[in-house]
Write a structure and sequence with these properties.
The complex is a heterodimer. Chain A is built from 4 helices and no strands. By secondary structure, chain A is mainly α. Classes of the chains: A mainly alpha, B alpha+beta.
């Protein structure tokens, strides 16, 4: 459950970042209008809320909130480093984590 | 001096962060390590036999106590859980006197001949006692937590582009800009964790920091607690009333607690008197609060079950809140993955503090050309202390691990000797930082730490080969995981050593060319 929560948390911060003008340009190499950016951001917030579901399902409310915040923070920090060092690979952690969830569903 | 609110908050953030930044850094490093306290002990005391499981260990403990302390007035047992393997008995001999304690083999009950070492306990104790005499370490840690809390709040106010600069880190920019990016990102993203960890850290010792409420309220609780803690040392009872055996009580516990943790602590008090009582407390389950644990209380004479419930039953809102915050801080509720997340947050926090300290020097270095003597001396001092704290502490920790493997196992007082090696290594790091140029100081200390950490498994293979081989054979991932982590830390320090020399100091030491300094300053925000 923590792996799924981490995958969703990372995906959500990635979507939020892609809804920001500078980061969008860094990743895609082109501009994105405000309306499109709002779509990215709303999707990001939705997945962010969705990530709470497996966290709470796995750890209860108190522990789940801690796990969720931890996953969002560590995800956001990893994303920051990737955006700075290897912006082409920003999707990799989400893919790897989701893959891990499907390969080892526990 | 300061015209706006934000500027004055920035000023406060800058200076309050500097004063206790080094203490906060050490607290964060040791606190992060403390998430893995039993695992570190596992590596530092490899002779401790593996636990056959808590049920068998608890029964062994009770048998051993009946053999060697049948007439004791009080027994306590720390039963190992799935993360630890140390089975420790405490007992107070009949007629009062000092508590005795012994670590025993959880299968045979014989005393364990393991090397003396504080293990992970060293990091845990350092985290809030800072190797100082009681209670000064706890006071210092409390002041540091308070300062950290103020630094967090002023930092949020000082940050001009809180949301606009989210996920932003530009390592290629001017030094001060890159460090500020890093500092901001680390701070903003993990703000919830930092607020939680500093606030809960303050609350844990609230009775120590704010003792007056309890004193003013008086009442029964503090008195009762005092009696429980220091003990109304019972005189040897004239007629010894035989206490009930503990074995059936443990059986009762294993009937009730089938899934999840088993008994973590056994306590038998008032033995030999009519008031004898036995309490079995279960290990932490999913609940966050440290009070959220099952317990069974038995009559110590008849062996009948008296109460079964939670540790926190009957707690008022204050105690309940305290229990939750305490539990949040310790993180014992965490599953392995959540613990890994918490440890990662600890690492980010360490980076936040380190980057803040470095930022202070990087910003000032460029303004040193033609600056007053005092300003130069200040930057010189902070730069040296930064090197010794940030790069020197990993060296000292690695030295502690080396000492753990190199000091002869039978050496008298070897646990304290390990700590001494830690302190000497740290002192050497400070001296080294003072005599070397800044860039060389960073590079050499980080490389030194890297070499010590990377070589740790090699050292282990040479001097503690049987333990390493046994761990490999039995698939002991705690032991092997420690080795992998050590190598990982070493590789990280090695990678950092190349960058830090460039990232923390201008190319030519103190004498930065005027033009370069100007260009540098213009790049600042």
């Amino acid at each position: 459950m923590t792996a799924l929560a981490s995958a969703l948390a990372y995906s959500s911060v990635l979507l939020l970042a892609l809804g920001m003008r500078g980061h969008h340009r860094t990743v895609f190499g082109r501009e994105c209008d405000a309306r499109r950016r709002r779509l990215w951001v709303s999707a990001g917030y939705m997945i962010l809320a969705l990530a709470l579901v497996p966290a709470v399902a796995g750890h209860g409310w108190a522990g789940g909130l801690v796990a969720w915040l931890g996953a969002v923070t560590v995800g956001g920090f990893s994303l920051t480093l990737l955006l700075a060092i290897a912006p082409r690979w920003v999707a990799a952690p989400a893919v790897v984590l989701l893959g891990a969830v499907f390969c080892f569903p526990t | 001096m300061n015209s706006t609110f934000r500027q004055s908050m920035t000023w406060l953030h800058t200076w309050i962060g500097l004063i206790l930044g080094w203490v906060c850094y050490a607290i964060f490093v040791t606190g992060t390590a403390s998430y893995y306290r039993p695992e570190i002990t596992r590596w530092m005391r490899p002779e401790l036999p593996a636990s056959p499981g808590p049920i068998e260990a608890a029964h062994t403990a009770v048998r051993a106590l009946e053999e060697r302390a049948a007439d004791a007035s009080r027994w306590f047992v720390d039963v190992p859980d799935e993360r630890s393997s140390e089975l420790r008995l405490f007992w107070q001999p009949g007629g009062g006197g000092r508590f005795r304690n012994e670590v025993i083999d959880p299968v045979s009950g014989a005393p364990v001949q393991a090397r003396e070492s504080h293990g992970g306990e060293f990091f845990y104790r350092f985290h809030f006692q800072l190797l100082m005499p009681h209670p000064w370490g706890r006071y210092t840690a409390g002041v540091a937590a308070m300062v950290m809390f103020v630094a967090l709040i002023t930092g949020v106010i000082a940050h001009r582009r809180f949301f606009a600069d989210m996920f932003l880190f530009r390592p290629g920019r001017a030094l001060a800009r890159s460090w500020l990016d890093f500092h901001n990102t680390a701070g903003v993203l993990s703000l919830p964790f930092f607020l939680m960890i500093t606030f809960s850290g303050l609350v844990i010792f609230n009775a120590l920091y704010l003792p007056w409420a309890e004193r003013a309220l008086g009442g029964g609780r503090p008195a009762a607690r005092a009696a429980g803690a220091s003990g109304t040392t019972p005189a040897a009872p004239v007629d010894w009333i035989a206490p009930a055996p503990l074995g059936p009580m443990l059986d009762e516990a294993s009937r009730r607690w089938v899934d999840g943790p088993f008994v973590r602590r056994i306590s038998a008090t008032g033995r030999g008197t009519a008031k004898a009582e036995v309490e079995l407390t279960r290990g932490e389950d999913r609940g966050v609060s440290i009070r959220d644990r099952d317990r069974l209380v038995f009559d110590g004479v008849t062996g009948a079950l008296r109460t079964s419930g939670r540790l926190g039953d009957g707690d008022g809102p204050g105690r309940a809140t305290h229990g939750v915050l305490y539990g949040l801080h310790l993180g014992r509720f965490a599953t392995p993955m959540v613990r890994a997340l918490l440890a990662a947050l600890g690492v980010i926090g360490t980076g936040l503090i380190a980057s803040g300290l470095i930022l202070w020097t990087v910003k000032r270095r460029t303004r040193l050309v033609g600056a007053a003597r005092g300003a130069r001396a200040g930057v010189w001092l902070v730069e040296r202390l930064n090197i010794a704290a940030i790069a020197g502490m990993p060296v000292a920790i690695a030295a502690l691990f080396w000492a753990n493997r190199l000091i002869p196992i039978a050496h008298e007082g070897r646990a304290e000797r390990e700590v001494l090696v830690f302190l000497i290594a740290w002192g050497v790091a400070l001296l080294h930082a003072c005599v070397r140029p800044v860039a060389a100081g960073w590079r050499e200390q980080l490389l030194g730490g890297a070499a010590l950490f990377v070589a740790l498994p090699v050292l282990d293979a040479i001097v503690a080969r049987p333990h390493l081989v046994a761990a490999g054979r039995s698939g002991d991932w705690v032991y092997l995981g420690f080795e992998f982590t050590a190598v990982g830390v070493g590789v990280f320090l090695a990678a950092a050593s190349g960058k830090f020399a460039r990232w923390t100091a201008p190319p030519s030491g103190d004498a930065m060319p005027e033009a370069a300094a100007l260009a540098h300053r213009r790049a600042l925000p």
